[in-house]
Design brief:
The protein is an alpha+beta fold. It contains 5 helices and 9 strands, in the order E-E-H-E-E-H-E-E-H-E-E-E-H-H. The chain has a single domain, classed as Alpha-Beta Complex (Maf protein), CATH 3.90.950.10. The protein is globular and about 60 Å long. It is found in: Cytoplasm; Nucleus.
């Protein structure tokens, strides 16, 4: 998958984001920042499916957004969130990378989708020999203000297809993961999607890290 370099911060759009507390008995308590209700629901379901006893709540926080790779965006947001809230924080950014387009739309998928729609994204691949795509999710964790963030990434390979299934969750209707037997994310129930999604794979790494961190701290 093509890696995107740094681009100029051409604008700072303020996002009214949800501040989501990840609480757990005897666990570290970072704040997960999101303003997307569907994303919050999905993260909550993934965390609830594990054995770490993580609970999710939310409240509003203003966080500036830069343009760049998923890693750069997640890191920038988590640094600001940690400074504002004075505690450990988690942020996330996603990308959808078309093989035929050298990795585009990548981290700019939200803008591409808003401008072109599902059909337009399919049209971009007209005439190309492949519809392969990679869904990428990056979580950034900051232990607190002024501390270096740690990244957790998940990837799911698939293909771009004509929209199928509900259309209320981003590009889910046009991404058919390899493990999906021809179905799109949108055609899967939550449990099935959350077992193979790019977000699940990144979040599971984060959960393992936080569980191990909590265990070490409890033994000190």
């Amino acid at each position: 998958m093509t890696s995107f370099g740094e681009r100029p911060n051409v604008h700072k759009a303020k996002y009214l984001l949800g501040q989501t507390m990840l609480t757990s008995i005897s666990h570290v308590h970072p704040v997960f920042v999101t303003g997307n209700a569907n994303k919050l629901k999905e993260v909550k379901a993934i965390l609830a499916a594990g054995t770490s006893g993580v609970e999710v709540t939310s409240q509003a926080v203003d966080v500036p957004e830069i343009q760049g790779t998923t890693q750069e965006v997640a890191i920038a947001k988590v640094k600001v969130a940690a400074e504002k809230l004075g505690t450990a924080c988690v942020t996330e950014d996603t990308a959808l990378c078309f093989e035929a387009l050298g990795g585009l739309p990548g981290p700019y998928i939200k803008d591409f989708l808003g401008t072109l729609g599902h059909q337009g994204l399919n049209t971009l691949l007209t005439g190309f020999p492949t519809t392969r795509a990679t869904a990428l999710c990056t979580f950034a964790y900051s232990p607190g203000p002024g501390q270096e963030p740690i990244l957790f990434e998940g990837r799911t390979e698939g293909n771009i297809v004509p929209a199928k299934g509900p259309t209320n969750f981003g590009w889910d209707p046009i991404f058919a993961p390899v493990e999906g037997n021809g179905r799109t994310y949108a055609e899967m129930d939550g449990k099935e999607k959350n077992a193979i999604s790019h977000r699940y794979r990144a979040l599971e790494k984060l959960r393992v890290y936080l569980s191990e961190k909590a265990e070490k701290e409890s033994n000190q």
